[in-house]
Design brief:
- Keywords: Ligase.
- GO terms for molecular function: ligase activity.
- This is 2'-5' RNA ligase family protein.
- By secondary structure, the chain is an alpha+beta fold.
- It has one domain: Cyclic phosphodiesterase (Cyclic Phosphodiesterase, Chain: A, Alpha-Beta Complex), CATH 3.90.1140.10.
- It is 33% helix and 33% strand.
- The chain contains 4 helices and 8 strands; from the N terminus they run βαβαββαβαβββ.
- Strands 2-1-7-8 form a 4-stranded antiparallel beta sheet, covered by helices on one side. Strands 5-4-3-6 form a 4-stranded antiparallel beta sheet.
- The longest helix has 18 residues.
- The protein is globular.
- The termini are far apart.
- The relative contact order is 0.26.
């Protein structure tokens, strides 16, 4: 393999991660859907991208550190559930201007600085996935009416960007970058 795979996200605090992982566990037990466990609960800001192994990792990590400095922490509200039929169910994230502009600015930064292009940034739909890919259409149609009616509410302040790296099996937290308006 000549490259490593990364993505950039906001990762909620551990107590919210635990609650989201319980929901993922429900999908694993009830519907044999476990692919969502391949990464910690997160809100993707930059979709997975390849970073050539011969390219200096410090270029990426120092760049992201610089990007995060001067950025405000972001208030995040998780409310209820949403879906991308026919096989994705997620915890919905309220679309607040600060979050939307952080994602847009990051996409522009990644494209101009590193040539990493994510055409999906214009259609950014922030969410935390609880079931996907291996959730069958039948299971989706059984589960979605239940989750469509469920309520959920968590709030937190996103204080850092997280760079996740794929280890060949799962996505692991590689490094965190504090959002800070002070240098």
């Amino acid at each position: 393999m000549n490259s490593q795979r990364f993505f950039i996200a906001l990762v909620p605090p551990s107590e919210i991660q635990a609650s989201v992982n319980e929901i993922k566990g429900y999908f694993e037990q009830q519907y044999d859907s476990c692919k969502a466990f391949n990464s910690p609960p997160h809100i993707t800001l930059q979709a997975p991208f390849e970073w050539p192994k011969e390219r200096d990792m410090d270029e990426l990590t120092e760049g992201l550190k610089g990007f995060a400095v001067g950025r405000e922490e972001v208030a995040i509200a998780l409310r209820n559930f949403g879906a991308f039929p026919p096989n994705v169910i997620y915890v919905d994230v309220v679309h607040v201007p600060d979050l939307m502009s952080l994602q847009k600015d990051l996409a522009i930064f990644m494209e101009t600085r590193y040539g990493v292009v994510d055409r999906r940034y214009r259609n950014f739909c922030p969410h935390i996935t609880v079931a996907f890919r291996d959730l069958t259409k039948t299971a989706f149609h059984q589960a979605w009416p239940k989750f469509q009616q469920k309520t959920l509410a968590f709030d937190f302040i996103a204080q850092q960007l997280t760079l996740l790296r794929h280890d060949g099996h799962r996505w692991q937290i590689h490094q965190n970058y504090s959002l800070s308006t002070s240098l």
